[in-house]
Amino acid sequence: MRKYTEPLLSVRDLNFKFTLRGQVLHALRDISLDVYPGESLAIVGESGSGKSVFVKCLMGLNDRNGYVESGSIEYDGKDLTLLKTDADWKNIRGSRIAMVLQDPMTSLNPLKTVGWQIEEAVKLHQGLKGADARKAVYGILEEVGISDPQRRAKQYPHEFSGGMRQRVVIAIAMACRPEILICDEPTTALDVTIQAQILNLIRQMQKKYNVTTIYSTHDLGVVANVADRIAVMYAGEIVEVGTSDEVFYDPRHPYTWALLSSLPQLGVKGEPLYSIEGTPPNLFREVRGDAFAPRNPKALKIDYVKRPPMFAVTTTHSARTWLLDPRAPKTDPPEHILALRERGKDLVAKAAAESAMATGAAQHLTDEDMAGETGRPILGDKPEKSGEVISNG
Ligand SMILES: Nc1ncnc2c1ncn2[C@@H]1O[C@H](COP(=O)(O)OP(=O)(O)OP(=O)(O)O)[C@@H](O)[C@H]1O
Ligand SMILES: [Mg+2]
């Protein structure tokens, strides 16, 4: 496992809102997250949880009715939330930070050959010209797994299959030699076998160029082999973050339990697949307490009253759930999650030992966030009452 050093990008208490027909939708709620150089970070959550809005904040690509209400995104000594115009973003968007979208057709120009489109990026970002630029194009096409590059370069996007088009988009993004590659659900539009190939390709690129990768998906199952760390999003907030092993084998948030439980790989043969009851909260209204409480059969009373802070589990793992408060009743995760924990206990122990040696990874936790860990009262002035509140049902 990598050792966490100084973050490359730091998001702090980010709140992002949209105004729509006079109403305000609170799309990102107090997001804090560090991204480390060379890592592969997956952002996982169901539809509408805010994955796209979040990654678009890193490139200033959200719709115009959206705005950063508060918080910061520190990158290379700048606060990206202060960049407004295309001119402000010029040296970052599409050069230092590149993005691969869900539908490759939206990023490709249907009227230009694939070779032309890659060549433009090569000329602009690698400073190559003429025959050198063309040679680089063939090299890149081969690198992303497109054979017969001389012939393929002359073709148009519609002559490529969906998976091949996504390879081209990745080729263009990589031709920019970005420091950060953002992939927003890059495989959702593709069938399963192609999905795995594209994921592998992204992983290869990440390793070969040591490019930091931020990857969003609603499918926790697909990130197991590609992500170093996972951040789980629900209703506009990060509810759990940790190394892949920590999130898979020692999940702490009931929403992560539910997400894992609904993975077909974990289902019991002959039994119907678990699905999460209910729907996420309406973000046009203020969310009270723990946003997942109404869908959590094991919710505590306090979950309906007060929003939990982030509790640290290890220096690399934290979760926003009252279950981690020392005063909370012991609540076991569902059985198959316990089985997972058993299966992965060596991996988790190893990760914990390594995280103890690592530095910096927990820096995003504020004093209030850490309050639970040190056992300090977190319910305000009258901690003696809290014993009653933090109880089941
Ligand atoms: N331009 C907009 N105006 C108003 N609301 C918006 C706008 N864009 C996004 N939203 C809202 O922001 C919330 C987060 O949306 P987002 O697209 O980030 O979800 P997501 O996690 O990417 O989902 P999916 O898996 O479906 O892509 C949703 O409630 C969405 O309706
Ligand atoms: Mg999305």
Explain what the structure shows.
The radius of gyration is 22 Å and the shape is globular. The longest helix is centred in the middle third of the chain and has 18 residues, at about 190-210. It has helices at about 50-55, 85-90, 105, 115-125, 130-145, 150-155, 160-175, 190-210, 220-225, 245-250, 255-260, 335-345, 345-355, 365-375, 385-390; strands spanning about 10-20, 25-35, 40-45, 65-75, 80, 95-100, 180-185, 210-215, 230-235, 235-245, 310, 320. It contains 15 helices and twelve strands. The site of magnesium ion has 4 residues, from helix 1. Magnesium ion binds next to helix 1.
Q: Quick recap of the structure?
A:
The chain has 393 residues and is an alpha/beta fold. The protein has helices spanning 51-57, 86-89, 104-107, 114-126, 130-143, 149-153, 162-175, 192-209, 220-223, 244-249, 254-261, 335-343, 345-357, 367-374, 383-389; strands at 9-20, 23-35, 40-44, 66-75, 78-79, 97-100, 180-184, 212-217, 229-234, 237-243, 311-312, 318-319. Magnesium ion (MG) binds at residues 51-52, 184-185.
